[in-house]
Amino acid sequence: MQKPLVETRSLLLDRPFHLESGDSISPLTIAYEIYGEDPGTEKQVILIEHALSGSAHAAFYHEGETKPGWWDDMIGPGKAFDTEHYRVICTNVIGGCNGSTGPSSINPVTGKPFALSFPPITIRDMTEAQRALLAQLGIDRIRCIVGGSMGGMQALQFFSDYPDQFDSFICIASTMRHSAQQIAFNEVGRRAIMADPRWNGGNYYGDIPPEGGLSVARMIGHITYISEHMMQEKFGRIRKDKDLRAIFRPSFEVEHYLDYQGVSFVRRFDANSYLYITSAIDNFDLVTSISGMGRFRGESRARGTRLTTLETKKGLVISFTSDWLYPSEQSRAIVRFFSGLNVGVSYAEITTEHGHDAFLTDHEQQTHLIRSFLESLEHAQ
């Protein structure tokens, strides 16, 4: 069977793109991919939001590659997001390092990478960039906006800011704002990067990047992605190196696994992007944002008024029993919040031992829930 191919595309916005910080970026590049794009066929649009280390490459294959996009089991013909019925779009967030403008991009003023001169970004900045992309593509109506983890934050933000543009949202393994513990894990990862001598105040481009620090940051993050049960079942106390004198090199199987995760991550991700994106995640607070207490260019009253249109909207929130990074209680808080705004929200907690990563691995139950939810939207018309 022939592998479905896709290409990452880029949109260049040559006007200043204004950020919540008051700064602006010009020009701005946004990377994106489209699945289920049949010329001459009108399809409803589904917008996919990626997590911290994700990219626009959500499904299908790039030419010459043997590994598909990060959510390929969920996107495609006959899958949860059926590309025979929907046109599915995924973008890379600004501040990232996979095609959209970020700290590693060239600053047109200096001719050098932005590094730490790149302005601070927020979750809303990410979604506003996507809104600009959709406008350029001539898309003003989205059937459903979907995301897991940080992608769920984007989905909630975008849906809340522009409810007229969306019929529904699906939020998976996410939260409306980080707890102190969640912020703490990200801060330790950031400190690991900044403590690496090769970080050099963010000016490491053209030299050896802070591989050690970024690798440790990824290890810390990865520990939070899988459950204790899965880690024990997969690794236990198995040793690869039984030399008891080797106390300062990896000897347990789990240590080698974390080493592998760290090394593979530094090959595909930029350390400064990690700093910027985790900061955006930690500063995300949906309730404050849409209540008018946050700073978003004086639009609080207009956005608050738009929230009264939510009565006709639908939402699906999914959590996982073993997810201790974003526990189910945080998902239930999302349900309560949007139910209080008269959104018709459905909730499902999936029993699994795969931890936070279940949104990427437990496809069967998610597919059943999502397919049923999307079908209910069709019946409601």
What does this structure look like?
The protein has 381 residues and is of the alpha/beta class. The chain has 2 domains: 9-177 and 285-380, Alpha/Beta hydrolase fold, catalytic domain (Rossmann fold, 3-Layer(aba) Sandwich), CATH 3.40.50; 184-278, Rna Polymerase Sigma Factor, Chain: A, CATH 1.10.1740. Helix 1 packs across helix 2, helix 3 (180-195) packs antiparallel against helix 7 and helix 4 crosses helix 6. The protein is globular, with a radius of gyration of 21 Å. The two termini are 36 Å apart. Helices cover 36% and strands 15% of the residues. It has helices at 123-136, 150-161, 180-195, 211-225, 228-234, 253-266, 271-283, 286-291, 300-306, 328-340, 358-361, 363-380, and strands at 9-13, 17-18, 24-25, 28-35, 44-49, 86-91, 106-107, 112-113, 144-148, 168-172, 314-320, 344-350.
